[in-house]
Amino acid sequence: MQQRCFSLQKDQSELKKMNLVGAINDALRIALETDPQAVIFGEDVGFGGVFRATAGLQEVFGKDRVFNTPLCEQGIAGFAIGMAAVGATPIAEIQFADYIFPAMDQLCNEAAKYRYRSGGQFDVGGLTVRTPYGAVGHGGLYHSQSPEAYFAHTPGLVVVVPRSPAQAKGLLLASIRDRNPVVFLEPKALYRAAVEEVPTGDYVLPLRAADVMQEGADVTVVGYGAQMRVLQAACDRARAELGAACELIDLRTVCPWDADTVCASVAKTGRCVVSHEAPITCGFGAEVAATVQARCFLHLEAPVRRVCGFDTPFPLALERSYLPDAERCFQAIKETLHF
Question: Which residues are catalytic?
Fold first, then answer.
């Protein structure tokens, strides 16, 4: 994979309180302003989309650069690949991550392999696919899934999952400018629930680099996306009730993931808990656990624990029981510490 590096350009003197969907909108605005080849398209994006992530952009940049498509995810992805192949910067929206599966052939068999199959002569590196993922409280089977592991299994794709407004803006701009096709999964439960101060200017955050949110010496806790709020609550409880110092790590980029940062932490703490909303079997936590076991075996004081969704379709009435909540994460931390 070809990697392109960016500097972090946060102007801390100009901050504005934004929710996560507002930060996404701001990043898209900057992308259109700074790249004349950038275009945004998808189902209903012309009037702002279901979650209003593209609200106001068509009015500013016109219908040639922000436009609706038919309800055809395979067509959206194929159109985006074609645009990227001739040098444009397509930013495609799939309305819900649950409906990205019709586009799997285009993304996994075409976009991911384009550079490799041409021997490096051609690429679709300008392609970014945005899509909201995860639980939302009432989504049920078809509006709650977390498909990140499917894409992480595909060499050639970058998979990014932000946890907060400031992270979302910087990571989205970095994804749009990265010279590899990126699947950018947005935690829709946090679209309006997560609010923080966000730099108003143009800045990027590094892809392929985990973020150590909190340092600790007793146990390494790993996650990404919306699950970071849950894990933070579990870590806070572990400190209050057990006196345990958890080292909390947000992967940010699920693929390629920052194994060095995670393994360095586990070598220090000797323990690891990893958590995500997606089902446990073949979830990305399995890759983290296997890598930690292989690279940190002689440092481990306890088995690596995974706290994940269950191997069932995403339930509507039993959503709260399905999700790996703060209680389940805390109990995993506790059991790991007392092993």
Answer: 73, 143
